[in-house]
Amino acid sequence: MSAKSTDVVIIGSGPTGSAYARVIRRDWPEARIVMVEAGPQILPQVGGHLDNVTDLKKRAALEVQAQGGDRTPRLSISKEEWEARRAGGFDASMLRRSGLFIANESDPSESLFAGFAAANVGGMGTKWSTGTPTPSQAERVPFIPTDELQAAIEVAEGLLGTNKDPNAGDVTAIALREKLGEEFNPGRNPDRTVRAMPLAATPGPDCLRYHGTDVVLGPLVDEAPETFEILAETICRRVVHENGRATGVELVRAGEEESWFLAAGTVVVACDSLHTPQLLYASGIRPAALGRYINDHYIVSQMAEMQSDPPMRAMNWIPATNDFPFSVTIHATTLSSIDRTPGFTGQPVGMGVFCPSDIDADNRLEFDDEHLDWHGLPSISIKWKQSEGDRARLERAKATAIRIAEIIGRPAPGFATIVLPVGSSLHYQGTVRMGESNDGTSVCDRNSRVWDFENLYVAGNGVIPTVTATNPTLYSVALASLGARQIAQARRTI
């Protein structure tokens, strides 16, 4: 790295950090942008999606490289763990997520069961499910005008390359949508009826090509380093600031001790919902709401059996509404012969009923200055408690899962309805939440600018302040586009 200063520095190379870079470039063509990523570049294609690697052995090795500081291969599920899961119990394999690393482990009955994050060029964009469903009206930020937020969602769909029906023509999936629609469509607005799950993917002759941040960045990756540069395996130790203005960042190469200062006109912290508040904390930026209000939805998992010919390939989606708080994904899955119970003859179909959980300021991250993680930053722990409202919604979600399984065919024999611990979706949010006013209950404004700062922004699922049940990537990229637009507008006039 030869540059000592830049117009914009973005900490984190995932979908929202990449969206900031792309929109700033769109609206401010002459901007110099530096992106900082703690992990390595693991694919020749910058930010490419790992699921496009067809060699499964090679993909598994790449997933280990994507784990950041802890590069221990994750073990597959054991027979004992599988039997516990089938019976509806907790199994330890849920704490082993391929291609991700564990930030902390907690008692799953008492706390957010674990924290995960990716560390490689592309961030979680190399491993995300590519689901891009739109949030319901109840999930959207109430203090951003409806038309403005809808326009931002459409921008996000373009950045991510959303395909509304990536497996078009799947006759079995279409027939199932019609059956589900008879049950769930009455009373819904036309845009919230049962439909194919939108994915950030391009159909190919044999399979889908999944979109990573290579798609979000687009032509940026071909620019000269003088205008756009990604610093891989580079850790940001702190945001340097004075009198409400960020002046730049302190950086260090992974595994080295000597740091250097990169001056910047604007700083965007786009790590993730755990590491963005961690970096702000380490930088002495500690608003009252920092790390608080951590929230995620539960997943109620149900296996169903479907008599289908031809087999279903597409993923179907029942959207959340004001009256139906669950977002439901229905997809084909696989079972080996030893997994099937006697009489199981149809196609196995997996289902996830995403169930919202209540927001509570006491559900929070805590940082330990005495114990540092592999970044050299205060280690993270998570404190979280289930609410009475959560328990009531979960009972309704479990009943909904059985109801849907019966429409599909039947609940798969030998498989219990399972409530995965909150946090298992990796859709944490709220830890740097936006607010309508600087009243101590939020970290940033509606454009993701940190309160009391002129030029410091945050990005990622952590800015979402609402209760949600929908995959949040599209939503958080939409909010990122608003912040990026404001940066470009403000800086181009200077």
TrEMBL record:
One of its GO terms (molecular function) is flavin adenine dinucleotide binding. Gene3D superfamilies: FAD/NAD(P)-binding domain (3.50.50.60). Pfam families: GMC_oxred_C (PF05199), GMC_oxred_N (PF00732). Residues 220-298 form the Glucose-methanol-choline oxidoreductase N-terminal domain. Residues 362-480 form the Glucose-methanol-choline oxidoreductase C-terminal domain. The keyword Oxidoreductase applies. The keyword Flavoprotein applies. InterPro entries: FAD/NAD-bd_sf (IPR036188), GMC_OxRdtase_N (IPR000172), GMC_OxRtase_C (IPR007867), P2Ox-like (IPR051473). Keywords: FAD, Flavoprotein, Oxidoreductase. Its cofactor is FAD. Belongs to the GMC oxidoreductase family. This is GMC oxidoreductase. The lineage of its organism: Bacteria, Pseudomonadati, Pseudomonadota, Alphaproteobacteria, Hyphomicrobiales.
